[in-house]
Amino acid sequence: MTQHLSYLVLGLGNGAVYAALGLALVLTFKSSGVVNFATGAVALYAAYTYALLRTGELMVPIPGLPATVDLGSPLAIAPAMAISLVAAGILGVLCYALVFRPLRAAPVVAKAVASIGLMIVIQAVIAQRVGTGLVSVKPIFALDTFELGDSLVPTDRVLLAVCIVGLAVVATLVFRYTRFGTATEAAAESEKGAYLTGLSPDRIAFANWALSSVVAGLGGILIAPLVALNPVAYSLFIVPALAATLVGNFASIWLTVAAGIAMGALQAEATNLQGIYDWWPRSGTAEAISLLLILIFLVVKGRPLPDRGSVIHRTLGRAPRPDHILVPVLLSFTAAVIALLATTGSYRAALVSSIVFGILGLSQVIVTGYAGQVSLAQLTLAGVSAYALSVLNQHLGIPFPVAPIMAALFATAVGVVAGLPALRIRGLPLTVVTLALAVFVEAFWFRNPELNGGVQGAPIDTPRLFGMDLGIGAGESYPRIAFGLLSLGVLTVVGLGVAWLRRSSLGTDMLAVRANERSAAAAGIDVSRTKLITFAIGAFVAGLGGALLGYQQTLATPEPYAVFLGISLFAIVYVAGITSITGGILAGVMAPGGILYLLVDRFLHVGDYYAVLSGSLLVVTVLANPDGIASKLPRIPWPEIPRRGAVGAAPAEPAVTRARGDRSEPILTVRAVSVTYGAVKAATDVTFEVCPGEIVGLIGPNGAGKTTVIDAVTGFTPATGSVTLAGRSLTERPPHVRCRAGLGRSFQDVELYDDLTVAENVRVGAARSASELPIARRVTRTLAVLGLDELADREAGVLSQGQRQLVSIARVFAAEPAVALLDEPAAGLDSDESRWLGEKLRSVADDGTGVLLVDHDMELVLTVCDRVIVLDLGKVIAAGMPEEIRANPEVLRAYLGLPADSDIPDPDAVPELHTGPLTSPEVLR
Ligand code: ATP
């Protein structure tokens, strides 16, 4: 028992560093929304500065100047620490001033990529200045021990943890009791919030960046005597630190610090168990702790779909639809073949590397660019494939081409597992999970001597087909043209496949999921399935790239698949253009070891400065053009080939009359639906029916529960009671199944796919209908009916509010639902536009569609609806014909918030009771 305890105490050292870095991450995130991947590098910088000061030298981090200045004699602990912390603080201020302040309004992903660029720059500057060798640092705390049962445990770990906990206490007090703290908390909510406290958000951010760098630096300095200084280990501290920060939800200092310390302690215990149990894995269990902690915490807390009102940031640029690809593909293919033939030696090798990295770039385009899942594990999946290829070759004797395909399929299986957390979490937490998974796989497999083939690596056979040698060759013949052509062939097939994917309905589903998961589900898209398919396809493509990388090196070794290279690959693809095929391929050109790398190295003679330059370039590109280089490439005007079934090509048709059975028989039956949110009873025993062709109004004062009822009926919120559509029970069914069964819905906050065009938005809605009419016709007809045909090719993100409303309604009706549930479709329309919309709704209903209409525009509801249901405080308080509702005293009381026994005002007052805002007239066309 005491042995376990003493290991737990030993782990406090690392735990304290995770906690310190976690604290630093929270500070920068709160004040500027940046997930600073460079936090570990800042700690490294402070630790190196300190280590050198203690030997009497000052590191000069400016390339061109002497690397160090001799101070004559070593500095004592206190001045060395003070100077190092000031240096770290200045570094933090510079980071904010030069990089993150200009990026204030940029998407979270852009900021994260910039921080990756900074991480590369800081690491490279240190390596260029003082080398990458291990540096030992004299103890800071006295080398005492204390007894814990039978074991002697060093006190320095405990003191280190106490220091960091002390720091956390101070930080908490500052945040709770000072104006600066309140202002930082307010700035975390919104910039305006910070202004209300009387402090400028800019100053708050500057102060927090300085503070966070000092905290990270302190962690780095204090751990330096315990863990020998080395750039990679320090930078990797960021992964458990991020895990701790996630536990604290990027907000709670206490949870973050506690999680960090606990993680360090548990990691040490995992190492202890290695020595006790034979079956305990030799490698990777410490890394598994961070992964498990995040998974348990996030997946349990996560939800299959984001909650109503979750902020949806547009984080990635538009993914262009590749329409005429034949000529560019032929031209590029020919150019690449000529380049391969015309080059030899290192130039051809660099070309081959670029081709292989192009494949890996495309895998990132699929997963992140199309489906919006920011995965940092794509290069790791490539490594999984390379190692699997070795096993298939060496242990199972499976040859080319079956082996690489099987290896890629194995990577696919791992990719699907990597994608499982995405079913419950999204955005940043998902990114961190993929990173933790990559770290785990690297430690558990790639660096595990029992599994990785030892120091000489895991050998991979030369690929041969019908006796033909397709290998990279060796010696004089290296690199053989045959391998270049093989890789080019794979890249071409993958490129065409990705182009097909973007044009397919699966591709549109991915973009819909990327843009907005809730409305994707409302359009009948199975969000979970789409995400898993995305991870599977992305992993398969990464697996193909990994197998080729393995063939290129003739063996599998850990280095090419290292986690940090994976992060750099993501950053390069992002900069090249993560949403387009051109961007993916361009990333190959720019990748380390690729053709651009070689050309810069040969002709610009940057030598040691390559990493510094490439990191800086990354930052500059993100600053100058967050959408990626590919979006700025000149568009070559290839001849337009008319698309079959393109929107606008088919003539507008009159609406098809769909009599859906007996119009007096309810098609939608909702019985005793109740919803509670914590202590709030948002809906209680709500019961109603909708018949085909009937428009039923659902009204009530603000907060009455109208949206909750729509959410419950369409499956977006857990509810009790039953929902039956055309005799089929939909109770307990997920949203996309309800949609496919014929329940359409729109959202109060008009959740459109801003990256897609109007026609594509409507098309997503139309795709999953049981209607026999072809999709393109339904799209055209719906656009024409709602007067949107001229906007068909316009991106939804640029539309006016009124136009957005209409597109969201068009998306519902294009599916020809049995019943459409419309949540405030007239919000943002003026009274004329509202009336016009009412007529359109009437004509759609006349075709047989049942409509449940929630709106604050009483005039619209009372004129267009056949029946009206009134909700108040979650309960149905009245139901009847519009004229009955108009005169109902209960309704008037509810709307005016009068007590039950009060006098009733003039019923004619009701139409004026707009409880929601009716904004100024918006241009509809
Ligand atoms: P409005 O007309 O303002 O849109 P509404 O009639 O649609 O209001 P709901 O939005 O359904 O009303 O809200 C009903 C009640 O449930 C309100 O008290 C609201 O604060 C509460 N509520 C809604 N969503 C949640 C949630 N996710 N968590 C907690 N409470 C919620």
Automatic annotation (TrEMBL):
Domain of life: Bacteria
SMART domains: AAA (SM00382)
Subcellular location: Cell membrane
Family annotation (CDD domains): ABC_Mj1267_LivG_branched, TM_PBP1_LivH_like, TM_PBP1_LivM_like
Transmembrane stretches, start-end: 6-27, 34-53, 73-100, 112-137, 157-175, 206-227, 233-266, 286-305, 325-342, 349-371, 398-420, 427-446, 481-501, 532-551, 563-591, 603-624
Residue ranges of the region described as Disordered: 906-925
Keywords: ATP-binding, Cell membrane, Membrane, Nucleotide-binding, Transmembrane, Transmembrane helix, Transport
Membrane-topology annotation of the record: Multi-pass membrane protein
InterPro entries named among the record's database cross-references: AAA+_ATPase, ABC_AA/LPS_Transport, ABC_transp_permease, ABC_transporter-like_ATP-bd, ABC_transporter-like_CS, BCA_ABC_TP_C, LivM-like, P-loop_NTPase
A Pfam family that the UniProt record links to this protein: BCA_ABC_TP_C
Limits of the ABC transporter domain: 668-898
Primary location recorded for the protein, binned into one broad class: membrane
Protein name: Branched-chain amino acid ABC transporter permease/ATP-binding protein
Species, as recorded: Nocardia fusca
